[in-house]
Design a protein that fits this description.
Distance between the termini: 50 Å
Number of helices: 11
CATH topology of the largest domain: Uridine Diphospho-n-acetylenolpyruvylglucosamine Reductase, domain 3
Number of domains: 2
Largest sheet: 5 strands, antiparallel
Order of helices and strands: EHEHEEEHHHHHHEEHEEEEEEEHH
Structural class: alpha+beta
Mean pLDDT: 95
Radius of gyration: 18 Å
Helix content: 25-40%
Number of strands: 14
Shape: globular
Low-confidence stretches: none
Strand content: 25-35%
């Protein structure tokens, strides 16, 4: 065993102050607790964010703003999200299992940026904005690599905004045990054009596929993706799927996502 001090932050300012003193933020605990159990993380102080009043969903007119501590289940069951961005509600409803959805939070998922997580694909695929205690970060600038983001040391996510679009869909090929995406594709079409983000496959984590976006900007149909190349050199290879198989899945899941829009 090792000693860990538990602190329940009273508000965002308190949480940021605790971080400055070496505290590790605890949102839903879906990543931090398992890594602590495996001795891969050994924080001196764990800072619980459940008292920071960061949960909630708001329709801001042209977007949906979701507080960082909002649980997956709350996004999935929100009438506001189901009406404004139904693909986002469907994505949240397919994360993990019921226990994970009742504990995991959107802010924790986005901050962790697991290469197989679903939410990063939604943020990037919708062109969302990550709000922190210091600034607003556009999706295209936020995800910088596998488990890496543009967050500065001591910076904390407070909310994530998703613009409303004309059409959107998310589909994934899930690992049967964990429900993580072996390949997941979020596609949207709105005033800013087509965006298509891929999770679960890229060696640098979530990414946009420019070739598919260009093809769909010309003709928004699954058939438009038939001739688009997906480079297996950029794909993850592991015990679940080889890089060339993941490359094949990217195009097939993308086609199904487009057909579902």
């Amino acid at each position: 065993m090792y000693n860990t001090t538990y602190v329940k932050a009273a508000n965002t300012a308190d949480a940021v102050s605790q971080m400055a003193n070496g505290g590790q933020l605890l949102a839903g605990g879906m990543t931090l607790i398992p890594t602590m159990k495996q001795r891969l993380a050994n924080p001196e102080t764990v800072v619980d964010l459940s008292g920071c009043d960061l949960a909630g969903i708001e329709d801001t007119g042209d977007a949906i703003r979701i507080g960082a501590m909002t649980r997956h289940v709350d996004v999935a069951e929100s009438a506001v999200v189901q009406k404004a961005v139904p693909a986002l509600a469907a994505l949240a409803g397919g994360i993990g299992d019921r226990q994970v959805r009742n504990r995991g939070t959107i802010g924790g998922s986005v901050a962790n940026n697991d290469p197989s997580a679903c939410y990063p694909a939604a943020v990037l695929g919708l062109g969302g904005t990550v709000h922190t205690d210091k600034r607003d970060i556009a999706a295209d600038d936020f995800f910088t690599g596998m488990f890496e983001t543009a967050l500065d040391e001591g910076e904390m996510i407070t909310a994530v905004s998703f613009p409303k679009v004309a059409r959107a869909a998310y589909l994934k090929f899930p690992n049967p045990a964990s429900r993580y995406a072996m390949v997941g594709v979020f596609v949207s079409a709105g005033d800013g054009g087509v965006r298509l983000a891929v999770t679960g496959a890229g060696s640098d984590g979530v990414f946009r596929h420019g070739g598919m976006e260009a093809a769909l900007d010309g003709t928004f149909s699954a058939d438009a993706l038939d001739g688009v190349a997906v480079d297996s050199d950029d794909m993850i290879g592991d015990i679940h799927a080889a890089p060339d198989y993941r490359a094949h899945l990217v195009r097939e899941i993308a086609k199904r996502a487009v057909a579902a829009c």
